[in-house]
């Protein structure tokens, strides 16, 4: 844990959701500078993890795991926080993609 935020303050979970949504969008859809994210996706396909980068919601869960473990104190609330943050990012993605 690098940071020590609490889920009881509403701003930190909202920022975590926005962070997960943006990073997941970068990893799944964008090319990045010098096509570095395209290279990342090619490496994922070579490692037989291509379906992970094809699915925003799947990648969002893994990005959420990293984000929540870095931002919040580990514990049972963190497990629920992982699903809450990835779910929030998925809701934003579904709302924007329509």
Q: What's the total helix number?
A: 5
Radius of gyration: 14 Å
Shape verdict: globular
Characterize the biggest β-sheet.
none
Give the strand tally. Answer: 0
If you average the pLDDT, what whole number results? 90
Oligomer state of the chains in this structure: single chain
**Low-pLDDT stretches:** none
Q: Which class do the helix and strand fractions yield?
A: mainly alpha
The tally of structural domains comes to 1
Distance between the termini: 36 Å
How big a fraction of the residues is strand? Answer: under 5%
Share of helix among residues? Answer: over 70%
The ordered H/E elements are: HHHHH
Describe this structure in words.
- The protein has one domain.
- The chain has 98 residues and is an all-alpha fold.
- The protein has helices spanning 11-29, 36-46, 50-54, 56-71, 76-97.
- The chain is globular, with a radius of gyration of 14 Å.
- It has five helices and no strands.
- The model has no long low-confidence stretch (mean pLDDT 90).
- It is 74% helix and 0% strand.
């Amino acid at each position: 844990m690098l940071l020590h935020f609490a889920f009881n303050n509403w701003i930190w979970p909202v920022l975590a959701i926005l962070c997960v949504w943006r990073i997941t969008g970068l990893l799944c859809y964008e090319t990045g500078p010098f096509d570095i994210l395209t290279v990342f996706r090619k490496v994922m396909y070579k490692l037989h993890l291509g379906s992970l980068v094809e699915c925003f919601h799947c990648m969002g869960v893994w990005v959420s795991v990293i984000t929540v473990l870095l931002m919040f104190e580990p514990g049972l609330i963190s497990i629920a926080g992982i699903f809450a943050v990835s779910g929030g990012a998925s809701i934003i993605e579904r709302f924007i993609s329509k």
